[in-house]
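Colleagues,

For the teaching module next term, I've prepared a clean inverse folding example: a structure given as tokens, and then the sequence designed for it. I'd like students to try predicting residues themselves before seeing the answer, so please don't circulate the second half yet.
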């Protein structure tokens, strides 16, 4: 039977020490800390409490606070080519470099299984923090999966930061850095409505994605404020890519759908919509107004320059890394558990050249 850790004992705790402290089997501890197997709330609570008290990390090389080791932050995102969240990653990397931290970047391809595998991998590597970027699919398993990530990372002395994702409920050791997604869409739809547009083709993004849901909700609220009917038939869901913007506009024109403006879920989608309108012999904004969301460099490079919603992506990266560093500096205070908090950054409309009042007011 192994000895329990006592104050002043500088030897590293083992998984058996954790099992002894929690009064459970080694296999039970392994199940909880791996995060890959179901465990009751009581078992999880006992194991994580014991792991925190013993400052347990699975292997000697996994402890982020090991003497002399450079802290590392792992940034996980759907795709490294995604313009918006590439700017978040840039912000994280810049803030990390200022603090002497290293940065790792991994891509999930939008796969929950790949996401889980990467979180487990970087946990084993002893990163100081894991930053997960981008919207999440609105499914029941999301809260449970993220809570499991947060608790297993916390047990290893690491911290989970969610960026642009829904906050978690309950007593979970996680920090959320978000932006006013719904408010940005509300402001942009309001901009179109105030210009006289009522027949607006809305391309919010994938129906199951929380980001798209927020943007659609914001647009709906703006219509309600104006007392204008919001038609579900004017909504076209699809991926946040150029091809979807082009196909959605082509399909609407082919079906004879009347619209005077396009409210796109991203600047890239807006660019695809503009190209489809040009191919159909329509001018932007003289015939159809087009707006985007994100304010990536592409928005000011298009012709005409795109009116869009500015999201402070790079600043979100700075805030995410600062939150992780603050959590790490908290030492024993952070081990009491609980939410690391939610920070919400503002968005605003950037008015450029792609909006005019409709030729025939509604």
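(Answer key — instructors only)
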């Amino acid at each position: 039977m192994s000895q329990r850790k006592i104050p002043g004992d500088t030897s590293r705790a083992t998984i058996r020490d954790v099992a002894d402290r929690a009064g459970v089997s080694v296999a039970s501890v392994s199940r909880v800390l791996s995060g890959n197997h179901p465990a009751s709330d009581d078992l999880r609570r006992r194991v994580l409490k014991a792991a925190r008290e013993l400052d347990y990390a699975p292997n000697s090389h996994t402890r982020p606070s090991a003497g002399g080791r450079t802290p590392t932050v792992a940034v996980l995102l759907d795709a490294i080519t995604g313009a918006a969240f590439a700017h978040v990653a840039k912000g994280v990397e810049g803030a990390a470099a200022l603090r002497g931290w290293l940065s790792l970047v991994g891509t999930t391809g939008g796969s929950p299984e790949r996401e889980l595998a990467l979180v487990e991998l970087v946990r084993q590597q002893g990163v100081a923090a894991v930053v997960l970027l981008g919207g999440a699919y609105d499914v029941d398993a999301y809260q449970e999966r993220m809570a499991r990530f947060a608790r297993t990372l916390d047990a290893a002395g690491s911290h989970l930061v969610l960026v642009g994702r829904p906050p978690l409920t309950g007593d979970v050791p996680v920090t959320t850095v978000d932006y006013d997604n719904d408010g940005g869409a509300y402001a942009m739809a309001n901009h179109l409505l105030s210009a006289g547009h009522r027949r607006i083709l809305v391309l919010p993004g994938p129906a199951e994605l929380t980001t798209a849901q927020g943007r659609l909700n914001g647009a709906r609220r703006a219509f309600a404020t104006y007392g204008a009917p919001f038609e579900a038939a004017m909504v076209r869901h699809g991926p946040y890519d150029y091809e979807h913007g082009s196909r959605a506009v082509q399909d609407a024109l082919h079906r004879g759908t009347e619209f005077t403006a396009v409210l796109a879920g991203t600047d890239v989608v807006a660019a695809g919509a503009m190209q489809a309108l040009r191919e159909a012999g329509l001018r932007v904004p003289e015939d159809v107004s087009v707006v985007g969301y994100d304010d990536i460099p592409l928005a000011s490079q298009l012709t005409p320059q795109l009116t869009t919603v500015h999201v402070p992506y790079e600043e979100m990266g700075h805030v995410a890394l600062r939150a992780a560093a603050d959590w790490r500096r908290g030492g024993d205070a952070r081990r009491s558990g609980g939410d690391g908090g939610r920070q919400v950054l503002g968005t605003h409309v950037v008015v450029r050249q792609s909006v005019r009042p409709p030729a025939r007011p509604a």
